[in-house]
Design a protein that fits this description.
single chain, about 210 residues, alpha+beta, Pnp Oxidase, Chain A, nine-stranded antiparallel β-sheet, 5 helices, 9 strands, about 35% strand
């Protein structure tokens, strides 16, 4: 079979303006809860897209660690490629793709760092080996070999002890959304798309988009 012949017709559900809530954050909560109930593998996995100073985009999969009316939070190495790109351009885009439910959610907005107190709280809640990994890895930097990486980990484990402190280069980002789009697959590629745009006064404007 040719790659061009790989296709699926979506037919599980539909999405209209009357189906969605007035508040897109509450609508996201609804869909996230449904993904959990459907036992979608890693429903908290999302793509984070950033843009470098020269305009070159990049994306990667990370795990969301919290969301509320203030925004969507994940944690990483501030010195990583995405961290460096967010320093130059604080806008980013998130994408959730729940294949089993034939759904996507796109989220765009401005990114800010979370507080040191929140960083410490989450860092200290992580498994010990994950904390040491965050200390040991100079994320996105070249490394000579797997053996060299494991040697860095061993040195960090020895130096850190059973209660390592959060390194200053590690912490959280919060994307404060100004755009959310809910996509539901439909037959014949006539997919349903409902988008929310935050208005200057803070309210959300909702509209249907063509597929």
């Amino acid at each position: 079979m040719s790659i061009a012949d790989l296709r699926k017709d979506y037919s599980q559900a539909s999405l209209s303006r009357s189906d969605v809530l007035d508040d897109p954050i509450l609508q996201f909560v609804k869909w996230f809860d449904e993904a959990l109930a459907a036992q979608v593998p890693e429903p908290n996995a999302m793509s984070v897209a950033t843009v470098a100073a020269d305009g070159r985009p990049s994306s990667r999969i990370v795990l969301i660690k919290g969301f509320d009316q203030h925004g969507f939070v994940w944690f990483t190495n501030y010195a990583s490629r995405k961290g460096q790109e967010l320093q130059h351009n604080s806008h980013a885009a998130l994408l959730f793709h729940w294949v089993e439910l034939e759904r996507q959610v796109r989220i765009e907005g401005r990114v800010e760092r979370v507080s040191d107190a929140d960083n410490d709280t989450y860092f200290n809640s992580r498994p010990l080996m994950s904390r040491i990994g965050a200390i040991a890895s100079a994320q996105s930097e070249p490394v000579e070999s797997r053996q060299a990486l494991e040697a860095q980990f061993g040195a960090a484990e020895l130096a850190s002890g059973p209660a390592p402190e959060r390194p200053a280069h590690w912490g959280g980002y919060r994307l404060v959304p100004d755009y959310l789009e809910f996509w539901q697959g439909r037959p014949s590629r006539l997919h349903d798309r409902i988008a929310y745009q935050r208005q200057p006064e803070g309210d959300w404007e909702r509209e249907r988009l063509q597929p």
